[in-house]
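Ligand-bound model needed. 2'-deoxyinosine.
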Amino acid sequence: MASPVTITADECRLAPKVLLHDHLDGGLRPSTVLDLARRQGYDALPADTADDLAEWFATAADSGSLERYLETFAHTVAVMQSAGALERVARECVEDLHADGVVYAEVRFAPELHLEAGLSLDEVVVAVLRGFASGEEAAAASGRPIIVRCLVTAMRHAARSREIAELAVRFRGRGVVGFDIAGAEAGNPPSRHLDAFEYLRGECSHFTIHAGEAFGLPSIHEAVAFCGTDRLGHGVRVIDDIVLPAGAAPTDPSFGGAKLGRVADYVRDKRIPLELCPSSNVQTGAVASLADHPFNILAKLRFRVTVNTDNRLMSNTTMSREFMVLHQQFGYGWADFERFTVNAMKSAFLPFDERLRLIDEVIKPGFAVLMG
Ligand SMILES: O=c1[nH]cnc2c1ncn2[C@H]1C[C@H](O)[C@@H](CO)O1
Ligand SMILES: [Zn+2]
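Prediction:
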């Protein structure tokens, strides 16, 4: 389906965007990785200019395997071990999202990966929140505010999820709005961390789970049915539980004859948001190509789809670029992007009244301008 309008990259930057799935350690500026490495004496970087490093990350991450994709994080995590480095990376993250026209973001990272130089979990979170606050202040002073909140991630192959869940609750109301698990999915099912999820549910706290990315439907089933997740990180393989009408093309405007299995039905009925990350999903092999991405099918079937970056450095992307990619691939126009953005804002872990305010005062007026 061709879009009735042609959308440009500049216009995408102007759109008020909402980002729910972005990793702090996957979004560093290449120049900052180099600078921090020099200052800290880290000499294992695979390139020594910002351009070469950017290209190295994008190429190495473009592996078709989540495990190999994740290996690239060794270099970013290595230079994020001091309070000063964490604060700088967090502040620059807000600056970059703000420059890209993001109005609300939830940025996640795994505090347990930043303890090598002796920081405590709490000190790590404090440093990151300080960086976010300083980025927000600068944005507010520019007259175009951005709100950035933090999700703390536990690594699914490790055994600290309960401790990290307690960290999320301890920092609730101070900038942390939820919890996540990430890392290599195969062999590390969400149910390994049931204790953390039960604790969070008892605390009326929010969480999302990376599921249905490298591993299929069983992982999504566990995340929604056993763990009770609020959202799905990716969740892209929910498509494996959907049978399309014979001969349906990915751009088919109607999938009325689609047959949903029990898991897909549950995800859609409960309006469980899918944090889809088109470019990253191709790099990790979650989908074979952008043309094969089920984004459009899921959107047409009225799943609660949202657009996300995952790792801006590894995928050499931004929210605007993900919008452009979807526009070029599926012909989406502003009404579609407004719907995906409202989907994201409704699904955020921010208090309800603040979500409504952003929808009514920022997102809808912003898209109204673009729609002329
Ligand atoms: O897409 C992903 N799937 C699973 N784990 C991921 C993904 N992107 C980043 N991570 C991991 C690597 C990071 O070090 C960690 C915390 O941000 O989360
Ligand atoms: Zn992710």
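The pocket of zinc ion (ligand 2) is lined by residues 21, 23, 182, 210, 233, 310 (CB under 6 Å).
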